[in-house]
Amino acid sequence: CLDREAVPRGQMEIYPRAKDEGGYGHDADPASVMLTILDVNDNHPYIQSPV
Known about the structure:
mainly beta
């Protein structure tokens, strides 16, 4: 689970696999990617006192 409030930016190592026609995709090399998680308001508004 990715949570922007916990970690807004991070680095992750992935292992992409290339597969051609008839290939099995057994070869993989690690690739480092930088992730930036955008903010989405996933919390309901909180009203402290009525107007």
